[in-house]
What does this fold into?
Amino acid sequence: MTPLLIAQIVLTLFVFVALLSSAAGMVYFERKIAAFLQQRVGPTLVGPRGLLQPLADVIKLMFKEELRPRAADWFLFSLAPIISATAAFAAFAVVPFGADTTLFGLLGTPLRLQVADVNVAVLVIFAIASMSVYGIVLAGWSSNSKYSLLGGLRSSAQMISYELSYGLALASVLLLGNSLSLNEIVRAQSGAWFGFIPRWFVFLQPVGFLVYMTAGIAETNRAPFDFPEAEQELVAGYHTEYSSMSFAMFFLAEYINMVTVSAVATNLYLGGWSGPFSDSIGWVWFLLKVGAILFFYVWMRWTLPRYRYDQLMAFGWKVLLPVSVLNLIVTAAGVLAFGV
Amino acid sequence: MTLFYFFGAVAVIASLLVIAQRNPIYSVLLLIASFGALSGLYVLLDAPFVAVIQIIIYAGAIMVLFLFVVMLLNAPQEETDFDARVHPLLRPAAMRLGAVLAIVLVVELMWSLTRITASGSFPSGAVISVATIGRRLFTDYAFAFEVTSVLILVAMVGAVVMAKQDTARGGK
It folds into this structure.
């Protein structure tokens, strides 16, 4: 085994553990920020400042009883959370999170901070996002419960509708980056205009960025678009019948999807790891940008009330889709006229 | 080569199970598994773009709609209007036609498989580059491309008209 191969394996494990703990961290920060916005204190009892609360949650979930409705289709019922969690982890594999590094000269050849360098990375993320719909749909159907089925149907309709705008927003960035590889797209955003404005695509694609963020919220089923689990109407939507660790897997998938959507948004629109000073601290800039987007997500959730379902569908098809198509046409014309 | 046989076996077995299933939901899922294996084969052929498109279009978009319809109909059991004990040759005409077509397909497959020569050379650059695919699609194959899109548009308009008819009648 070459040192590079060992480094690759360690990196893969590191990303896996980092994603797991990012979900736990997000749960803590979400509760703290929610409490802050509602003038409460939030978790304080477990550990200093309640920092061990996620750990307590995990232990609680592990020791809960695993319930299964008698009329459920047991195979699909157990498969659905696995699909959700797997898709969430798999999508992050193609996301680069820093410049190439030699780990302070430990390695001869530089290591790429990315689990799998695929030259069609953007499409892979899109493909895995379309696969994650199955987890929710199957959970809804196999539970054999009306709330679950309605939640599953809603979410599949919602995710299919918003995937179109999501894809068109991605396509506009691909035109600017002239590549399907996230590495190339990040590299295309290095440098600055007039010496002080960073060459981030968000300045060229303000509309595309808004479309991407909106569709991203719908894709991850977050408030104000969290219809699959609209408590007042559907109890808990597609995961009504789930308990213990299979519920935890859906929960995990939701938070990891949030991290992935934010990381992809950072790579596509906010210049990825590019920032001032040397490239070797690129991952710090990357983490800061992802953190900012994640905070924005949580902020949105505790600020805006939930839409009505028909409003969501009308907005997706009659506003977001035409806007993203127009954005794509204008971007294509701009690329044709001014070059990349 | 091991991977080729693995993906090939998954694709063939999953496809066979699609028609052997009585529960349409499992049929849909097995078809998705078959598409996934097919996409693995595309990756082995150095065509990652085609592989990902296969997943996005077929396994992602189209099969979700299939699943949607099956779930809405909520038909766990396939309705069969024939008795399984009747001899295959005495069943309705459509089934006999299906059998004939299946035999024709098998014969054609056998015939084409015996004719494969192991040259194994094809311009691999053509399938890798997205730019090449796009350029070809909008120049050499522009006519086929446009005709296909018109066909899809016609199908869409047809579906809308058929769906609207029902509600108009119900509204009266």
Notes: The two ends of chain A are 42 Å apart (CA to CA). The mean pLDDT of chain A is 81. Strands of chain A lie at 192-193, 197-198.
